[in-house]
Amino acid sequence: MFKKTALLLALPATMLLAWACGDGDDDVAKNYSVTVTLITPEDIAITDITDLKIVAVNTTTGVEATLSDLNGDGLAMEASLTAGEYDFRASGTTDDFKLNGLTSVPVYEDKNVSIVLNIVSGDGLIFKEIYYTGVMSYYWKDGFFELYNNSDEVQYLDGLIVGIVDGGFGAPSAWADESGNLPNRYPLTNHAIYFPGSGTQYPVQPGEGVVVATVAINHSARELTDEDEASPVDLSHANWNIYIPAQASDIEVEGIPNTKVAHSLWGFDFMPGVNGAALILAKLPEGVSVENYIEDPNSFQKTPVSGTWNQLMIPHEYVIDGVDIVYPLEGQQYKRLLPSEDIGMAWVYGKGGPGTSSAYSGKSLRRKVISITAEGKVVYKDTNNSSEDFIIGGQTPTPGVHPVKID
Questions:
Q1: Cβ distance 80 to 31 under 8 Å?
Q2: What is the mean pLDDT of residues 80-91?
Q3: What is the DSSP string of 329-390?
Q4: Which of 234, 295, 240, 259 is nearest to 163 (CA)?
Q5: Which fold has domain 2-119?
Q6: pLDDT value of residue 2
Q7: Does pLDDT of 198 surpass 90?
Q8: Which residues lie below 8 Å from residue 171, measured CB to CB, with a gap of 6+?
Q9: Beta-carbon contacts of residue 346 (< 8 Å; ≥ 6 apart)
Q10: 126: closest CA among 392, 407, 378?
Q11: Quick one: which of 47, 154, 49, 42 has its CA closest to 96?
Q12: What is the mean pLDDT of residues 205-211?
């Protein structure tokens, strides 16, 4: 159940967010008034929420307008919202929960906008870093992701699924309905992998990271031709190797354990693509093994429209972390994850900076560091908003290495 709280914008005495109307000149971009209504989960009042923030993002230009919390008395801000297509993102925290909400609305007239706040997922393990871009010439086998225990309790890898969410490239998801709403189950593409174990075989201590390599070798030592560039990573010390037995070109690495394959559709390697894709980390309900889950026909669904593939589906409530990686070009950034997993989006720029493809740039996405304890434990930012949690644009990959200062 949910309950509504209207934010009446732009007048400090009320909770009105007003973006004033334009001057009527057709040659000048018009601005419009927007009234935002937050719909909170049952038993959570708007006054229970701290750090409440609403951001309106023009999805064509990337321009943002932000509202700030005024000591719990409401939101007030005078700003100008130019006509266009917008994502309205809301976030906040209570004593017990983190909350996120997202709605996409075209603003070409005065609007009433409702944002449903959801209790966000989270279970200690997060994606600390994801490297997927590769280097020239067309070398992508040096990819990796690193999981990190951001909590104060031991977490376990056993049975966790890592998947690449389907949705197309630089275009709206074929899985969305006519209104653009994404489904409550995530369709996995490429190869879905998981960690073996009976439940407690593979612990990750608080403050520890686990590097999972596409191929766990020293990629920086590969022999180069005149057209090649050196890889920035040595993955010979990775904790796990992603091995796809069905692919003859894939290899096992002595001394490094393999992940297992839950379901395969295509591809030589576990690969989000050099321009990225949404990744999820999922945990099945207690007592349900991966083997049992994939034996159930209800765990699969045919691809919309074409019906080409039977895709493994993961209910969103099973997701413990997700990063919505999108194409870096403005106007071609479309979400694949629900706000409960990631209210924002993240991307890597190419070598030419903003407006260039991330392909073969040699850059990774890494979370920002928000604190380092006296004992030296790094705490990464985790608000389920990758637009703010990650260093947008990318950085030099750092597998297994944690920063010594706050970002």
A1: yes
A2: 85
A3: STT-----S-TTT-SS-B-B-BTTBTTS--TTB--EEEBPEEEE-TT--EEE--SS-HHHHB
A4: 259
A5: Immunoglobulin-like (2.60.40)
A6: 52
A7: yes
A8: 332, 334
A9: 323, 324, 325, 326, 365, 386, 387, 389, 390, 392
A10: 378
A11: 49
A12: 96
Predicted local confidence at residue 111, as pLDDT = 84
Geometric angle at alpha carbon 36, from 323 and 174, rounded to 5°? 40
Interatomic CA distance for residues 364 and 305, integer angstroms: 33
Q: Is the pLDDT of residue 122 over 80?
A: no
Determine contact, residues 147/281, Cβ cutoff 8 Å: yes
Structural tokens at position 58: 């023009």
* Residue 269: closest CA among 190, 164, 350, 168: 190
Q: What is the pLDDT of residues 164-197, one digit of tens each?
A: 999 867 788 989 888 888 999 999 999 999 999 9
Token match 């796990």: residue? Answer: 240
* All residues at 6 or more sequence positions from 286 whose CB lies less than 8 Å from its CB, including other chains: none
Are the CB atoms for 242 and 164 separated by under 8 Å?
no
Q: How far apart are CA 319 and CA 122, in angstroms?
A: 8
Whole-model pTM: value is: 0.80
Q: What is the percent of the chain with per-residue pLDDT over 90, rounded to a whole number?
A: 56
Strands (DSSP E) contained in 218-323 are 240-241, 260-264, 279-282, 300-302, 310-315, 319-323
pLDDT for res 183: 92
Report d(CA 18, CA 25) in Å as an integer: 20
Region 316-334 average pLDDT: 91
Task: Please tell me the distance from the alpha carbon of residue 92 to that of residue 98, in angstroms, as a whole number.
Answer: 6
Q: Which token pair is 244?
A: 């796809």
49: helix, strand or coil: coil
Give the DSSP H or E segment for 56: strand 50-58
> Whose CA is closest to 232, among 401, 352, 353?
401
Domain boundaries, the chain: 2-119, 122-407
Cα–chain-centroid distance for residue 168? 16
Average per-residue pLDDT for the chain:
86
Structure tokens at 246: 């069905």
Q: ∠ at Cα 189 (387, 203), nearest 5°?
A: 70
